[in-house]
Automatic annotation (TrEMBL):
Organism: Streptomyces albus
GO biological process: polyamine biosynthetic process
Protein name in UniProt: Polyamine aminopropyltransferase
Similarity comment text for this entry: Belongs to the spermidine/spermine synthase family.
Residues in PABS domain copies: 220-463
Region listing for Disordered, in residue ranges: 466-501
EC number: 2.5.1.16
Length: 501
């Protein structure tokens, strides 16, 4: 050994620490990327973790055949793991962009990374015993201690350092570069006398090629993302920005006149269609007007709606004194203020002096507000995505509606989207059942020219009786949707979310 045995063990354990941190970054990157591309974070996390843990068992069995060449085996495993794990984000994004799906790629990549991570520990056990013989229990304890501490550091590094400062793709590639350096240096330096000269040169060439690929890939991330966006959204991508919360993409022209040539304006949030230019005002009116016509509306709360469309409809009603907008991502508000297309749709509503914007999680904001003596709201508008595709199901839970009810005046109204009634009637009626479970009286309605359903809810009382209590503006000439009585469905709660993607 080029160093004393104690120092050699420390180097091996440091390598275990770094490799474990990199391995957990790969897992978190796959979960985050799959959730952004496919949705349903619970399912994606379950697929990644279960496949990866199973594959780790397979990798441990495979590593038994490499113990006679533990140093070379570990060097090749780390080089391959750095290449597969570091490039996993790019591979998953490419599969989604050009093949139209990411599930198969997610399973294959998770399995490959799991096999390689599982092969690490038997090889490291063999290497650390070569430095200095000790009982198996003590060696395993040392290795797992370094492994678990490294996993902690990797788990914290991904959301607080890599994701905000480098993004998913570049962060993954840089993690792979650290991984190949950590594994290669230990093998090439500490165990170089265990390797024949030819094997050492081959391993050095493999590590060098992987490192060059990862560094080169990090330099090409921007053109790759641009090409992938064009493959996903078409060639009319006009704006693409990454905020701390999500990726925002705008396509199409900035005015209705330009939509004929450059395509209709569309806003995508993490790949999900959040806004269409031709439907923007229609959906805003359907969500806002029924609640605003049913009584006082001087104080209004808008949950979500960072694009300003629901806010525009609110401010068009006379008698509005103040509007509070609670939106978690300031990047959406910034884009809606600056982009001429979105600003043309919202009419500059976000800059109205009556508007106060709070950048916060709506659930937490309402919960903290309930502890004080703040005046109630006359109207609450939940300008949220459809429940079946919402990334934050707690905003469609019984607990959230209960907090909203506490923030309402006695004759206040809460307006909630229920999604497309024809495509997902169960999700719509689950919203209705959840509102009733929170102690609210509901009125389902559908705009005369659309297939989306909405619900207006009130606190129990005389004003809540019947769907015509809000001025008779609910779907003129049409019954509540869908036709027939509402099915008896369980409500959605924090512990039992009921909105599958």
């Amino acid at each position: 050994m080029p160093v004393p045995a104690g120092l050699g063990r420390a180097y091996v354990l440091a390598s275990v620490f770094v490799c474990a941190a990199c391995g957990l970054v790969y897992e978190l990157e796959l979960v985050a990327m799959a959730t952004a591309l496919v949705g349903d974070s619970v399912t994606q996390a379950s697929v990644v973790l279960s496949v990866m843990v199973f594959a780790m068992g397979v990798g441990s069995l495979v590593a038994k055949r490499l113990r006679c060449h533990a140093a070379a085996g570990f060097g090749y495993v780390e080089a391959l793991l750095a290449l597969v794990g570091g490039g996993s984000g790019i591979a998953l994004y490419a599969s989604f962009a050009w093949l139209g799906q990411a599930t198969v790629a997610l399973v294959v990549i998770s399995f490959a990374i799991g096999v390689l991570i599982g092969a690490e520990m038997p090889l490291l056990m063999t290497l650390i015993q070569r430095i200095r013989e000790q009982d198996a229990g003590g060696a395993v304890a040392d290795l797992f201690a370094a492994d678990y501490v490294g996993a902690l550091v990797g788990g914290l590094t991904f959301p607080f350092l890599l994701l905000p400062f480098f993004g998913q793709l570049t962060g993954g590639l840089l993690t792979g570069a650290v991984n190949v350096l950590a594994g290669g240096l230990v093998v090439q330096w500490l165990f170089r006398h265990d390797l024949p000269a030819r094997t050492r040169r081959r391993l050095l060439a493999a590590n060098g090629c992987v490192l060059l690929l990862l560094v080169g890939g990090s330099l090409c991330v921007e053109p790759f993302e641009r090409a992938a966006r064009h493959a996903v959204y078409g060639g009319d991508v006009r704006v693409a920005v990454r905020t701390h919360e999500q990726e925002l993409v705008l396509t199409g022209g900035t005015t209705p006149e330009q939509w004929r040539k450059a395509g209709e304006l569309r806003l995508f949030q993490d790949g999900r269609l959040a806004l269409r230019g031709r439907e923007a005002h229609r959906s805003g009116r359907a969500l806002v007007r029924p609640a605003m016509t049913g009584g006082p509306h001087g104080r209004v709360l808008v949950v979500g709606g960072g694009d300003g469309l629901a806010l525009r409809e609110v401010l068009r009603r006379p008698g509005v004194d103040s509007v509070t907008v609670v939106v978690p991502d300031p990047g959406v508000v910034r884009l809606a203020r600056r982009d001429p297309g979105l600003r043309g749709l919202n009419g500059g509503a976000l800059d109205d002096p009556r508007v106060r914007i709070e950048h916060a999680d709506a659930f937490r904001w309402l919960r903290e507000r309930a502890r004080g003596d703040a005046p109630p709201f006359d109207v609450i508008i939940a300008a949220l995505p459809d429940p079946a595709s919402a990334a934050d199901p707690k905003l469609y839970s019984q607990e959230f509606y209960g907090l909203a009810a506490r923030a309402l005046a006695d004759d206040g109204r809460l307006s909630v989207p229920g999604g497309r009634t024809a495509a997902r009637p169960r999700a719509f009626w689950t919203v209705e059942a959840t509102l009733r479970a929170a102690g609210l009286r509901t009125c389902p309605h559908t705009p005369a020219d659309g297939g989306r359903g909405y619900l207006v809810a009130r606190l129990p009382g005389p004003a809540a009786e019947g769907c015509d209590a809000g001025g008779g503006r609910f779907a003129p000439g049409r019954p509540p949707v869908p036709r027939g009585p509402a099915p008896d469905l369980p409500p959605s709660t924090l512990m039992h979310p009921r909105y599958p993607d």
